[in-house]
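Appendix C: a fully annotated inverse folding record. The material below is reproduced so that readers can follow the format used throughout the book. The structure is listed first as tokens, followed by the designed sequence.
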């Protein structure tokens, strides 16, 4: 995927030095990385990883999210304090390819358990058009695609990741392996239920095509027989060409699209412009990269259910 504002390697190295210096004072009392309560210290790169860690770890983990609520995770740059906290963790849970600064810092760290969510399921290459409609109708605008990291928006793939994280926690903290195994099973059951709701809720719809600001929902579209048409590619802040906008306007008319979706952490301006020019509605489809006061729910499951309702409305669920 396109990468924006890569943190310079020198800055990463400097932050790492700061982190190691700060760690010296606290390592003696941290029990080899565990916090003062003896809990497994987990650093999560952004909200979907935090959610997994908290659901699976329960009372036996202390989770730190490197991405603050409301912060666009692709743009994360680590402070010296964040790097220090990462260095003192037992487990780093991240999604390689989404946050370059995190990838660099984890590679340079001495954390024993580095859990890359991307390695726990299968990633695919996606462009600006993804799904069954893309295969059946060649509009000639698939666009340049890269490895799509948005696996958490497919409940089935997210469940695969959850199972891998559970096993990693069992290995990192054998004393509480039974609890991690039980919590993982509970979470997977929740995700299975979510998947069933999406399957049933999107089975019969008037349209199968939806437009988003950036290509975050490709896995979801493929899972449920839909087609995502993205204004931009995998980079949420890239500007679309005039030709792409015109193409989407024509496609919307041909395929009966009613709504242009925008997301919570990125400006809705592009979506509003396209919708206004084409006489379409706008609505939120949340990629759940963070939970904020504007999120339609307090956690991953609730926001995904809100996404399902939004899709059903836009696609004309029967």
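Designed amino acids, in order:
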């Amino acid at each position: 995927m396109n990468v924006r504002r890569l943190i310079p390697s020198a800055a990463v190295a400097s932050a790492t030095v700061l982190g190691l210096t700060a760690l010296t004072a606290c390592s003696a009392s941290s029990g080899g990385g565990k916090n003062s309560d003896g809990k497994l210290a987990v650093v999560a790169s952004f909200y979907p990883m935090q959610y997994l860690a908290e659901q699976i770890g329960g009372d036996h983990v202390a989770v730190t999210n490197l991405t603050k609520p409301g912060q666009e995770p692709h743009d994360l740059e680590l402070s010296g304090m964040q790097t220090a906290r990462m260095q003192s963790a037992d487990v780093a849970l991240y999604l390689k390819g989404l946050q370059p600064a995190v990838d660099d810092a984890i590679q340079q760290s001495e954390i024993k358990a580095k859990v890359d969510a991307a390695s726990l399921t299968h990633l695919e290459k996606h462009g600006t058009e993804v799904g069954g409609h893309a295969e059946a109708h060649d509009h000639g605008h698939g666009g340049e695609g890269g490895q799509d990291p948005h696996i958490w928006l497919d409940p089935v793939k997210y469940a695969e990741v959850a199972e891998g994280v559970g096993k990693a926690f069992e290995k990192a903290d054998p004393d509480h392996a039974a609890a991690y195994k039980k919590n993982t099973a509970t979470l997977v059951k929740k995700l299975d239920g979510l998947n069933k709701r999406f399957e049933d809720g999107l089975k019969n719809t008037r349209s199968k095509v939806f437009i988003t600001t950036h290509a975050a929902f490709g896995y979801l579209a493929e899972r449920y027989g839909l087609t995502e048409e993205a204004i931009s590619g995998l980079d949420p802040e890239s500007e679309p060409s005039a030709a792409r906008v015109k193409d989407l306007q024509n496609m919307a008319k041909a395929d009966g699209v009613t709504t242009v979706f925008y997301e919570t952490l990125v400006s809705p301006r592009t979506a509003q412009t396209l919708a206004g020019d084409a006489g379409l509605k706008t609505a939120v489809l949340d990629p759940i990269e963070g939970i904020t006061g504007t999120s339609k729910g307090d956690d991953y499951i609730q926001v995904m259910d809100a996404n399902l309702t939004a899709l059903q409305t836009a696609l004309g669920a029967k």
